[in-house]
Fold this protein.
Amino acid sequence: MSAEDRESLVVDNIGTLLTMDPEAGEGPLGIIRGAAVHLDGGDIAWCGRSGDLPDSVRRAPGIDVIDVDGRVVTPGLIDCHTHLVFGGSREGEFAQRVAGATYQEIAAAGGGIVSTMRATRAASFEELVELGASRLATMLRFGVTTCEVKSGYGLSVEAELKMLRVIRALDGRQPVALVPTFLGAHALPPEFRRDREGYLGMVIREMIPAVVSEGLADFCDVFCEEGVFSVEESRRVLEAAKSAGLGIKVHADQLTPFGGARLAAELGAVSADHLEHAGDEALAALAAAGTVAVLLPGATFFLNQDFPNVRRFRDAGVSLAVSTDFNPGSSPGINLPLAGTMAAVRMGLPIEGVFAGMTVQAARAVGRQARVGTLSPGMAADLAVFDVADHRTILYRFGVNHCSMVIKDGRIVVP
């Protein structure tokens, strides 16, 4: 749909508008009370106090005025770290962990990522598209309008390309805008168990060139962790991706203080994700590099690990995003506001930081900050309307979907 074909809307009688632009309103969230937003051609044309919107706009021919009756409006939420495309499910492993098995023990016995790899390889292209579309529809209803999606459950040239092509197909079949990330270095597939160098060579010399040739990804990620890929192995993959023109991300220091965060800072990664065990020097390096730290409290909760205290991150000056890490093994939850509640309660992230982490900082973590994450003229007309009078209620009444309307590129897509 061209910009000329999109609707012209006024969202009026907003009780609390979170612009996420401190210069536009009150406090760090840029709050405007009694607000209105004019959307035109897929962009925000104007936002401010409702009484300041010219009557000529409300009365313009063909414009629709939506009265949201004092509700809270935020930018469309951004889930900046997900593994949304996969086949199969892993309830059995959940039961094993509840009974005392560790994530590492399950993986060593042939479960974990390799289990999902088998199911994803076996699934057809259309099956994966249908599964992904259903999951994205759920995300959309929670207010998510932009979602990063990783490959990494194929672990062969053919299967990784299939996953990325599925992501591309999904990007055109439903409203949520997708940010594709290549994660071929997610685990070592069984057929390369005795040939690490062979698999790394395939990732670097075959997968990355094929991904770039088809334009299938914006970023390359790597799981830099003990028992997965070493710092030097991760460096080789990321440097090859960077040389090929991809942005880079790192799964860093999730299970041990392994060095992934320092590597992310050294290479100028757009984000370093997890970071449960990142040390103070690593956090200082991330802050100096401008790398966004992506908090994934759902994984920490579901793996029954100790939550990091984000005061250390904030004291170091690190920018913080919040995401679901939606995946079948370590974080099968798809509710981004619930992840925000976990980040507040268990990690100590202030409420203002949670909302920033799901919008403006999440946009930075996927390189889309010039278009999404804030509500100001010229930005994308992506809005989420919540059926509450106080934005804090979205996190306070946890586990409930408070989102009643979603607008994507100026079009109402929920309900």
